[in-house]
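Q: Got a minute? One more chain.
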Amino acid sequence: MPVLKFHQNRLSLAKRAFSTRRVAPKDMKVLITGKVVPQAGDLVLARVVELGKQTRVELTDGRRAHLFPGDEIVVAYGNRYAPDQFEAIVSTDLSPCDLVAAGGIAGLELNRHIRMRHPTQIEPVGLIGRSDGCRINLRDYRVDASEKMPAIPGILSLGTSMNAGKTLTAASTVRGLKRQGYRVAALKITGTGSGGDIWIVRDAGADFVADFTDAGFGSTYLTPIDDVVSGALRLMNAAAAKGCDIAVIEIADGLEQLETRALIRHERLLGVMMGTLFSAFDSMGAVHGVNILHGAGHHLFGTSGRIGMSPLGVREAENATGLRHFSPIELQEAALVPAIRRRAAELQAIAKRQKKALRRIAGEMVGLELADVIHTPFGVSPTAIEPSAIEPENAPDSAAENNDYTRSRLARDILRLAADHVMEAEIKDVQSKKKHRAAPRKAGNGAKRGRPPRRNGYYSRKWETPFGDVWLRVPRLRDAHYLPGFFDRKLKSEAVVAVLLAIGTDVFETVLARLVTFLSSKVAPRVGIDTLQRDILALNPIAATGMNRGHVRRALDANEAPASYLVPVDDDGWDVDFHPSEFPDPTMPTIKTAAAVRARSEELSVRRLHSDLLKTRPAGPASVAMSGNRAMKAPKTAGIIAKPNR
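A: Always. Here it is, folded:
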């Protein structure tokens, strides 16, 4: 087994791939050649022979460097499983092989997708070793952490297959958790070494980012399952040591892939997970995947993935699975966080090592439990609101999650209205002060005081709140600058929570006044609380009687006007699709899932629209206004009623 010296000049000219980023260049001292059998994770110096699919290699810093024939590259041996690209295994010797992944994985191609070009062909020069002549393997440079049960819980991101949307789902979940103030780790525990998934979750704001290469694997295909699980626990413990509260964990490929099929049933891994988000291409894949995961003992939060590109596909999946679909935008706006907090509260009773982390997660619930606001400056009396007004007993999980999402929309609208009233009061205050300080000017028969700065329209500005982003129309002055003072203050979620809980009670006006005072104590006395109260109640006639009946409807786009997500009401002020006479108890709708609610709502809407169009034909072009999935009849043109064409 000949050993050659690996000169540092030669190393500096070679392109070191992403998969080798944890190995210190100073340790690369020799090249081991001759009759050696490579192992998964061994570092190898190779020469590019012929370019194929991989025309670039991802370097240790993430830059994708162009490859040219004759280039020398430092990569790692590994197996690869990618249904959309290649299947490859580690070679049995140092004979020519293939670069099967741009992240720097060398292997022998077995088969490839029909639309895929052949991989780039490389010729190994020798295994890279230390000065003592021992080969360098990635497992020698894995993170230093325990493989015991971690102190933080995890959320799994699984999918039907490669490119189903798992990474975007994980990144969006990270973003939503970060917006709620949590310290989040983003981990990928299986796959083939590449930096693409790491960069997106890092950009999403993850506090700690790592993948299986940090656990000592160039790829995880054909790796013993116990080793993969141990690597995952090692990464979770490393994240806990960095102060993270929760880990969002992606597992590559689909549920039927060799390692994934074993991992989703591994008791040691499931024992540290709070729940799972499942990404699918279509409704059939969603249904089958959900059934598999339920059978394996997973707690499913909902579905996501590329199926969200088809509203009909989403409807089919929700009807068939009974689970809510979360779009990336909804996840980024923390729509999943209330369900995560409820799950953390449930697990506290049975958790051991993770009890402290679960308490932190569940203890920061925003507005879903009365206990969160009773002992705060914005709290309301426990006797002022019945618990049933917060959440109906025995409500289906999917309905409760949709209720949380509707509340977050309503919370943003309440904040927007309160901010509008505060800004109007502040802008008048600014104008008044500018007026009295203005220099006098001569006009007519004597000197008059300077007039106040004139209004000059509005400009849009984003206000980040615990309930998501709120876009405000900030007044603009022609001769002065104005910026609302509450932009610089950290909004306390319990201030809005108390308003939500107090809707329809005697303390509503008092709690609303406290919210306004929190936004701006200086102008609070000049804000019309009565007007603001009417504006909030006008968001939804049902809101005036409490939020307990609002959980059957799902909010639509965050930036639409409030009326766009509120269902039409009849003369009695009730939702035309959900009249109280339909239910034995008006506060307890009997519909089991939000998907069933929407399907029934759409059916009735189409039926009414069809009937209206047959009975009435307006003069001139007829128009039908659509709001989300709701169809509204266009106004009649006076005096013209025609029989329908047969």
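A: The CA atoms of residues 560 and 627 lie 10 Å apart.
Q: Perfect, thanks.
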